[in-house]
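User: Okay, second chain of the day. Same drill as before: sequence in, structure tokens out.
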Amino acid sequence: HYGALSKVPLFLQLKKQPKTFKVKVITMDAEMEFSCEVLDQEVPKDSPITFHFLAKFFPEKVEEELVQEITQHLFFLQVKKQILDEEIFCSPEASVLLASYAVQAKYGDYDPNFHKPGFLAQDELLPKRVLMQYQMTADMWEEKITAWYAEHRGIARDEAEMEYLKIAQDLEMYGVSYFAITQNKRDTDLLLGVDAQGLHIYSPNSKLNPNKSFPWSGIRNISYSEKEFTIKPLDKKKDVFKFYSSQLRVNKLILQLCIGNHDLFMRRRKVDSIEVQQMKAQAKEEKARKKMERQILAREKQMREEAERAKEEMERRLFQLQDEARLANEALLRSEETADLLAEKAQIAEEEAKLLAHKAAEAEQDRQRLEVTAMKTKEEKRLMEQKMREAEQLAVKLVEQSERRLKEADHLKQDLTEAKDAERRAKQKLLEITKTTYPVPYSTPPAPPAPPEASDFAYESASTRLDFKDSDMKRLSMEIERERLEYMEKSKHLQDQLKELKTEIESLKLEEQQQQAGLYNLRSEHNGKRCAKKIIFSNSNACFVLQRNSAYMSQMAYFEEV
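Assistant: Same drill. Structure tokens below.
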């Protein structure tokens, strides 16, 4: 090309280039800039000149009329924006459902492991009017949308967008272009709505329910002259409807919308052209192919997921089998160790059994020996108990004798006191007699002498009585001495018997302690306690007798001193 350009004459190369201007086209998902030549139209001075690529005429049935996928996607974005900008009214329930399909189209199937709470925080999904209508937080709205979103599993992007448009096309304000108009003669403010179904007249405050409608099938002609529009019904009996619009540019736009929508309305009710049929067939084949591809991909994805799950299950099972094998090996080792320990314990138990059998034989011999010894011990105990009873009887007898001797000593003491009194009176009497027989010279006249027979008799009586008392005292002292000797001899004999009994008790106790090491431990202990009680009782009785005897001996010593 550069070589050919060099052969062109210079004046042709210097020809003035056409004037161009920059154009910026904004679609719903992209922006494009390029240059265009200046033609015979007025061009704004803005640079670049911005154009918005939007659908001017809305389809009646989106599923039938939106053939290509890109057209469907751009139209979905346009309708979605109009709903969010509140150009199309949508109830809160329908808004949440539409938002769930929009999320399905953008994010695909819901995965709770990936779509964590808050993943919709940056997405605009609901109109502001809906958000302000209820006192709900963003998390609460997200929870509601996610609940619907989770039910759309398996729906592809184009299918989710189509479901969105199916719901949107049933909304009252879908595809309606509104214009401010006034009615003839009364200048009443009204709204004119133009859509795929026909023309509608609304009150200014209500865009949902029209006051009057003119379907395209019932309109014969639409015309306007400057600001006046005339709608002629197909039924000539009906009145012609006229309205006014103040702007010429708006009037031209209204006329274009009416012509275009009417033309599409009529074409939809005719057989499609060959080009349209080919486009629909191609689109149908393309959809079928994509659907098949999606099914294959879904099947492959499912198989891959199943394979991954099977792999995870096999890995888990492998780990489980490895753990079971490790535990089985550990159990085997423990069982081998346990078997060795059990064998060793069995050998020890066998040896212990032999030792116990030997000990049992020895115990049987000891039992027989202890039985013989117990029989001897019983006889010895019987003799000892007999001796103890005899000692007790002797102690009781000695106690009784000591009490009787004490009583006799009391009588003797009383007699001795009386004898002392008699002796004292005799001495007094003798002294008186002596004074009478041998008077002492005084200055007083002497008393008349007594008869000699009387004085001799008195003296003789006193001497006889004194001699009698002396002989009684000697006899009493001899008896006391004799009884003291007898009592000392008996006490010595009793002490000897008690010592002998104590020696026998100690020897018997020693034998019983030796027997306690045998098989009859409890029985021997019981017999020992009974024997100990008897010994304590015998010892206490002996001590009591000795105490009583010591008191008696102290009394006898007193009498001897007297």
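The chain has twelve helices and ten strands.

User: Thanks, on to the next one.
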